[in-house]
Amino acid sequence: MNTETNQSIHRVAEIIIDELILEDVTPETFDPDLDLVDEVGVDSMDLATVALVLRDEFGVRIDEDDYPKLTTVRIIAQYLDDKRNDSE
Amino acid sequence: MAASKEEYKFSDILAYPEIKERWQKVRRYFFLRESTYDMSNRCNIRCQGCYYYVGDKQFAPENRDEQAWRNLLLSEKERGITFVVLAGAEPSLVANLCRACHEIIPLGAIATNGLIAIPADIDYRIHISVWGNDRTSEQIRGASDMLGRQIANYRDDPRAVFIYTFTPDNIDEAREVTATLADCGQTISFNMFSAPTGYQGPLRHTADSLKKTREVMGELLADYPGTVLFSAYNIVAHTESQGLHDLFSCSYPRRNQSTDIGLGRSFRQYRTDLQWDREAACCVPDTDCDDCRHYAAGSAVVTSRMYRHAIDPETFSAWLDYVDTYLAVWVRGYEKGRNLCNTYINPPVNK
Questions:
Q1: pLDDT tens-digit map of B189-201
Q2: Partner of B284 at 20 to 30 A CA spacing, among A24, B57, B208, B326?
Q3: What is the DSSP string of A62-73?
Q4: How far is Cα B57 from Cα B77, in angstroms, rounded to an integer?
């Protein structure tokens, strides 16, 4: 796992915690492999909200058709890094 | 692909105080997860073009066991459903079953023809269907003095909202119906006739009727702002030449293969035998998807496309108006705010 992805994981976790007002968890303690839908209770409108904040932060558009694939913080972070690298 | 430079950041859009306030108002309701339930296979009237009496669902036997309904609703609650829509064919014929649902899941709406009053303790939003003036109702629905009877049943009832379904033949009649409801202190919202599968009758909209409907909706929204629960973007979304699926990509299971998240995962449409079929599951089963402009479908389908509308303040305001309208029409106690965008904007495409 490279440093870039680790930083992205931390930031994605931070945004999810802030936007969805998750309690009793910090970016440091958030398990990046938790299933966001099954284990955190995220739904499509939550994910769309998070996607908009991530778009601001990372400058990356998240295709609506990709939502179902974005099941964990780690997968989201990797998705964002890949998109950023593709555009460079 | 990186976000284009001319595109607004979401934070820039929310920097507008009115937009931020409205966003914070509507997002509190993102917890709503709906499913729909056919309550009875009977109806006290028979309307031309009724979606219920098309396809197999009309032949499902009725389950009239209150405890079976309670058990179903408990299991629905368990899997995260927070909002129920009680529909087909006529729920007021089985008020005891509606009450059983309300006791388990307290948020919801009932679609009724309004000719039988639903008891006040069933505190759901009540959608009363109107298909024109009394003369037209008598022709299409076979019921006389319909609007007067509907108003009498729901006078001063805060649960009630009248849903006027526009067909090519009743567009002008919306004026007199809206004026009557305004005089009585009622509220009205608009629906579009959406052809059932295989329907070949005269109620299917044409390019001309869509254009005329748009004009009359706009006129009524301007003339009766306290009575009409609608917005400019509602008008656009429901009167374009393309249907909702083509414009926004329908997210109901019938048109959405994904079971990972959203409606494709959670939505079910139960028949009167308490069974459901993923292949048929949407809010108005057996509607021709290419012709679907149904208000219930739009409430979910347009709302779910938040991301694509967050491209500039005007487009996001239009989306907020749509969501604000949907919540006012469907959720008891939710008060609609002033519309933020009063121009007709084009629905954004998914980039």
A1: 999 999 988 888 8
A2: B208
A3: --GGGGGG--SH
A4: 23
Whole-number Å distance between alpha carbons of B64 and B102 = 16
- Asked if the C-beta of B338 comes within 8 angstroms of chain A's C-beta atoms, the answer is no
Cα–Cα distance, B340 to B342 (Å, whole number): 7
Q: Residues 6 or more apart from B298 whose CB is under 8 A from it?
A: B234, B237, B238, B244, B322, B326
Q: Which of B12, A87, A21, A25 is nearest to A10 (CA)?
A: A25
Q: Where are the domains of chain A?
A: 3-87
Rounded Cα distance, B252 and B301, in Å: 8
Determine contact: A67 vs chain B, CB below 8 A. Answer: yes
Q: How far is A57 from chain B (nearest CA, A)?
A: 9
What is d(CA B254, CA B240) in angstroms, rounded to the nearest whole number? Answer: 22
pTM, to two decimals: 0.94
Q: Are B69 and B76 in contact (CB under 8 A)?
A: no
ipTM of the complex: 0.90
Which parts of B134-251 are beta strand (E)? 160-166, 188-192
d(CA B218, CA B235): 7
CATH topology of domain B32-238+249-289: TIM Barrel (3.20.20)
Q: What is the DSSP letter of B276?
A: B
- Between CA B49 and CA B126 the distance in angstroms is 21
The domain over range A3-87 is classified in CATH as 1.10.1200.10: yes
**B141-199 pLDDT per residue, tens:** 999 999 999 999 999 999 999 999 999 999 999 999 999 999 999 999 999 999 988 88
Q: On the CB side of B332, how many CA atoms lie within 13 Å of its CA?
A: 20
Query: Does the pLDDT of residue B286 top 90, yes or no?
Result: no
Residue B5: per-residue pLDDT: 46
Q: Can you name the residues that pair with B165 across neighbouring β-strands?
A: B191
pLDDT digits (tens, 9 = 90+) for A27-82: 999 999 999 998 998 988 999 999 999 999 999 999 888 888 899 999 999 999 99
CA nearest B2 in A: which residue? A60
